[in-house]
Amino acid sequence: MTDLITIASDQLTAAINPYGAELTHLTDADGRALMTDADPQFWIGHAPILFPVIGVTNGGVIRLDGTAYPMAKHGFARHSTFDVVDHGASHATFRLSASDKTRKSYPFDFVLEIAFRIDGATLSVEARVVNRGDAPMPAQFGFHPAFAWPLPYGEPRADHRVTFTAEEPGMLRKIAPEGLIAADRRASPLEGRVLHLRDDLFVDDALVWDPVQSQAVTYGAANGPQLHVAFPDTPRLGIWTKPGARFVCIEPWHGIADPEGFTGDFRAKPGVFEVPADGTTTIRMTITLKP
User: Fold this and answer.
1) How far apart, in whole angstroms, are the C-alpha atoms of residue 288 and residue 224?
2) What is the pLDDT of residues 79-103, one digit of tens each?
3) Spatial contact of 201 and 257, defined as CB atoms under 8 Å apart
4) How many CB atoms lie under 10 A from the CB of residue 139?
5) CA 139 to CA 275: how far, in whole Å?
6) Distance of CA 165 to the CA centre of its chain
7) Which string of b and e fits 186-225 if b means at least 16 CB within 10 Å?
8) One-character DSSP codes across 224-239
9) Beta-ladder partners of 17
């Protein structure tokens, strides 16, 4: 088992696994767990890093210049061991670089760095997608943190909600049974800007805002401490759990699963961004515990 890397302030402590550069624990000053218990009955993930794709690809491949490359759901970063390139009391940086193994599914000379920093009651996560090649590099990237539902402050599970910072008038994307994006959309369950969490919302997989107007949401019960999750660089948001599980995922995405029937070049897939030659794309998320 890979040793976890711990960083802390006087208000938060985080532990990150170099395998996947995955945040596995986030606790408050009293040691109360703010993240999933990873019960294997439901899901053993904590906060996987999604790269270079989001979700399922049609046929389990991406197509580039007429060649099909095998690509697992959510990409390979979450199943890769990152190098720890910097670590201090309140910060740590992890790096994954292109290799012969990654080029079999993603033929680009990339570097992916995930930097974590705690400042008071805020955990900041910054992803840097670096293109070391001499041509634009297509990619997708997403965060996937799973928070405790309920949070550990004594408020009932049924009182937990997600509040958006902006109006979200559009319908939601619909996920087909095989995980691809369906052609039709589903009605939004928001009441104003508020999503009242309940298990039946997730019988048909995640709720997907594409696009999302908000750049942040607040999660928790109205009468208890809450988590403020900000995502200024991602134009989509997924919220997901499995009915009955003790977690809810708030997932800022710069990308989306393949639409049903999509067989085009990866560069033409909805939600793909391009990193310029010798360039870097930065994608940020912050998690703040608010009393």
Assistant:
1) 14
2) 999 999 999 999 999 999 999 999 9
3) no
4) 23
5) 8
6) 19
7) eeeebeebebebeeebbeeebbbbbebebbbbbbbbeebb
8) S-EEEEE-TT-SEEEE
9) 22
* Tokens encoding 260: 């049903």
Question: What distance in Å separates the CA atoms of residue 114 and residue 200, rounded to the nearest whole number?
Answer: 34
pTM exceeds cut of 0.85: yes
The pair of structure tokens assigned to 168 is: 């979200």
Which of 236, 230, 234, 238 is closest to 281 using CA atoms? 234
DSSP annotation string for 149-190: SS-SSS--GGGEEEEESS---SPEEEE-TTSSEEEEEE----
The alpha-carbon radius of gyration of the chain (Å, integer) is 18
On whether the CB atoms of residues 289 and 269 are closer than 8 A, the answer is no
State the DSSP code for 101: H
Q: Which two tokens mark 264? A: 């085009």
Strand partners, 110: 131
List, for residues 217-229, the tens digit of each pLDDT value.
999 999 999 999 9
